[in-house]
Amino acid sequence: MTVQTASARAAQGRFDRLQAATAGLEPPFGVIDLDAFDANASDLERRAAGKPIRLASKSLRSRALIRRALDRPGFQGVLGFTLPEALWLAEEFDDIVVGYPTADRTALRTLAGDERLASRVTLMVDSVEHLDLIDAATGPRPTRVRVCLELDAALRLAGGRVHLGPRRSPVHTPQEAAAFARAVAARPGFELAGIMGYEGQIAGLGDNQAGSRLRRAAVRAMQRSSVEELSSRRAAAVAAVRAVTPLRFVNGGGTGSLETTTREDAVTELAAGSGLYGPGLFDFYRTFRPAPAAFFVLPVVRRPTARIATLLGGGWVASGPPGRDRLPTPAWPPGLRVTATEAFGEVQTPLVGTPAHALRLGDRVWLRHAKAGELCERIGELHLVSGGEVVETVPTYRGEGRHFL
Question: Which of 65, 153, 177, 384 is the most exposed place for a label (fewest CB within 10 A)?
Answer without folding.
Answer: 384
